[in-house]
Amino acid sequence: MSASYDSIVDQYMAYANASPTRPIEVRTMLRLSGEVKGKSVLDLACGSGYYGREFLRHGAGSAHGVDQSQGMIDFARALSTYRGDGMTFQTHDVMDMPSGSEHDIVLAAYLFNYAASLDELQRMFSAVIPHVKHGGKLVVQTLNPDYRLGLGDYAAYGVKVLEETPWKQGARLRLEFPGTPPALITNYRWERAHYEQAIRAAGFSAVSWHEPVLERADIDARAEGYWEGYVHNCMSVNLVCER
Ligand SMILES: C[S@@+](CC[C@H](N)C(=O)[O-])C[C@H]1O[C@@H](n2cnc3c(N)ncnc32)[C@H](O)[C@@H]1O
Predict the structure, then answer these.
(1) Residue nearest (by alpha carbon) to ligand 1 atom 4
(2) For the chain, which domains are there?
(3) Closest C-alpha to ligand 1, atom 13
(4) pLDDT at position 3, please?
(5) Residue-wise over 157-194: b if at least 16 C-beta within 10 A, else e?
């Protein structure tokens, strides 16, 4: 798996801090998670720990972040120490996390879009399910199977899609976070049926797809037409997988 964020922590954080879609995305993840109060949260591909920290702020009992990038984990840990929010962290590839910890809510915001093959997608869901309590859920944000570069490059929302090419049974997308130098990353887009097959094969009992929750206040805060590309060619989509 190649998704090293170690050398692009600054560019990623600059993007994340300025992202106009982040408040929409966290609102969506919170709503899809249901009751959060007192729940144990595992934040996979946690990056800076943004989602876990937001869930703690909304009353979660605990939040633990896992990311394969030591640079992101160092940043996340320093931020949580500074804020005293109690979030804990671990550097690990989710593909081979140590077993033994189960959580009420497992978050995966931009993890599955790094699976470079259907086999990897399948193995990723299978690696994650043992960490979801029976009766708990995995809440996912990933690259929307319907997004097409030909309909817009997403630059208005802080990240630019440079290239989209066919890749195995899906597509490979090259994205750029602005900065000096800009940071390039590679994502993979898979079809809905591919996700659903991987999710069921991993052992989840139910799966549902959800659009990001855009509210009137988001629309009023921007110039007319600003959200056009987000609504009609959204790069993210959410899934709830129940165990
Ligand atoms: C776009 S960032 C998202 C970070 C965070 N979830 C957020 O939304 O701010 C993607 C993160 O996924 C991590 N990542 C990618 N593949 C991973 C894997 N197999 N195991 C653990 N972390 C992974 C990267 O290191 C990176 O920090």
Answers:
(1) 47
(2) 6-144+191-242 (3.40.50.150)
(3) 45
(4) 54
(5) bbbbbeebeeeeebbebebbbeeeeebebebbbbeeeb
Of 28, 53, 24, nearest to 41 by C-alpha is: 53
pTM of the model: 0.97
Q: Report which protein residue has its CA nearest ligand 1's atom 11.
A: 45
Q: Which amino acid is at 68?
A: Q
State if residue 159 touches ligand 1 by the CB under 6 angstroms criterion: no
For residue 52, give every residue at least 6 positions away whose Cβ sits within 8 Å of its Cβ, in sequence order, or none. Answer: 41, 43, 46, 60, 63, 64, 65, 87, 107
- Over the stretch 70-103, which tens digit does the pLDDT of each residue have? 999 999 999 999 999 999 999 999 999 988 899 9
Q: Ligand 1: which atom is nearest the Cα of residue 69? A: 25
Q: For residue 195, which of 128, 99, 106 has the smallest C-alpha distance? A: 128
Cα(38) to centroid(ligand 1), Å: 25
* Cis, peptide link before residue 145, omega less than 30° from 0: no
